[in-house]
Amino acid sequence: xxxxLRRLDGVLTIxxxxxxxxxxxxxxxxxxxxxxxxxxxRLFYFHVPFAIGCFLGFFVVLIGSVGYLIRRGRSWDLVAExxxxxxxxxxxxxxxxxxxWARPIWGTWWTWEVRLTLTLLLWLIYVAYxxxxxxxxxxxxxxxxxxxxxxxxxxxxxxxxxxxxxxxGLHPSGVLKKGNLDPAMRxxxxxxxxxxxxxxFVLLGLRMQLGMAREELDQVRELERDR
Length: 227
Prior knowledge:
By secondary structure, the protein is mostly helical. The chain is built from seven helices and no strands. 80% of the residues lie in helices and 0% in strands. The longest helix has 44 residues.
């Protein structure tokens, strides 16, 4: 990798670390306390941005998967693989913070409402995607099968997003619409959202670097075996 790209990665990593400290401070100390839900509402500043981030991650999986099926280039497959890992991480955070927030507000850790059920199903699909990549040894076959599953899995994302509008459930709708959120809360939310999205791209770049380094190491090992 060129030196200037390494330096850029380093700068972005430092920026996102600093931004995360500001985001945490803003969520727990800077934003005003929500009158009805109290301090547990502060999870909103992470729960929703990580949910949007996981949608972004699975969208990048879709792009990488389509790109691989058209171009058959390993770089497209690596993009999809890297984004899937980060998307699953983000979705896991959503599934953990959601019940913590829900318990004092809804009176239960979990309810099988549509959005929760579909989010869990989405997580399971992309966990299966990662498991598929682990258990299929032949690279081209692994990339093809993964690409198909990555494309099919993304079809669930719009249903997760629009579920609060299509079916009744405990999740509120229209929270982010202008006027529905206190201006100070909205400011903190937007900062956290952009920070978590920037974190996604930093992690994506680092994961792709790791993938390329791993492939170079495998090539060196193959050359050594051939000798």
